[in-house]
From TrEMBL:
Organism: Arabidopsis suecica (Swedish thale-cress)
Region (Disordered): 25-49
Tree of life domain: Eukaryota
A molecular-function term among this protein's GO annotations: hydrolase activity
Keyword Hydrolase: yes
Keyword Hydrolase set for record: yes
Any GO BP annotation: nuclear-transcribed mRNA catabolic process, nonsense-mediated decay
Record key words, sorted: Hydrolase
Designated name of the protein: P-loop containing nucleoside triphosphate hydrolase
Amino acid sequence: MAGSSGGSQMSSPAAPKILLAKPSVSPITGKFGRGNSDDDNASHRSRLPPVSSLNMLSDSWDFHIDRFLPFLTENTDFTVVGVIGPPGVGKSTILNAIYAFDGSSPGMLPPFSVQSEEIKAAAKHCTIGIEPRVSAERFILLDVQPVFSPSILAEIIRPDSSSSVPVLGNDPLSAELAHEIMCIQLGVLLASICHVLLVVSEGVHEDNMWHLMSTVDLLKHAIPDPSSPALSRLQISEIGPEMEFKDKLSEGNEYMATPIFVHSKLQDQDLSPKNILQLRKALAQYFESSSFRQGRNGSELVEPVSLVIPSKSSRNQHESYQLAMWKLRDQVMSSKSTSFSRPVSEREWLKNSAKIWEMVKNSPIIAEYSRALQSSGMFRR
């Protein structure tokens, strides 16, 4: 695995026998305050996630480790897999497949809840914050709330169009701009703390996730990986906007998770070998000069990995939905992902991830990018 020496080749293991937690029981209820001043004040206070959740990221945009920490050990041979994408593209379903959840077992709940028809009809999102699980093979899986989500935007917007979530400290932002910055912050965090990052889009013509990851590559500057010795010695209270991050980095190349670009719900007409080849060529060209092309040793250049998943209703003669999902699982399980700079335990990884989140929220580069977007006139003031 990748905890200490990168992802090594391994055969597909048996499905884990234990699920760590039930999914959240109230995914439709709004999480962010939009009402009077009491609601506004409450939205800025740190609140723990629901009892039924192991959530690491609260609705006040704060990182919490207390609920998930008891499930982690001092083991250093583990792999962190995150997922990012817009709503409804199958992120939770993909993680359930990687977890090897067997839905045919009576009475068993999936490790990650998926959108029900009720949630779809209400145009709501299912995952809130970052929901973690850990498999028997010590794969730490991170299910993340959707990016570019109208329902999240609707929940954070106040009557005056400002954001109820303090994404950049006390800097007041419009809800639209805050939502954009939230997407970038999640991407930078996952690129910093994961070994493998699944970037999921729907169909072959949607490239918003490519643009987002290109922005993440641009703005993820001077953010150390969770194994940095300097980070382990750092206290969260020491992290602020004035802090210079560069001296906190370990020597060598800046860390970047290994991305796997997944295009889901493809229709039969999109699944021809010619179309798939064109998609992969376009992806390679788009990220030609990106940090995502760095190999395990930081010097070699590798082509970005892309996988396609047909829609469940597809009758494609080349590959079925189920086969594509198992190929994706095998790709993740055997991925030669980038290693952290030194061995780190699961528990230390989680504690240092909380510090990295504070660095992301206090990043002067992301703050400057936010001011540039605001000055561009693209977002309300």
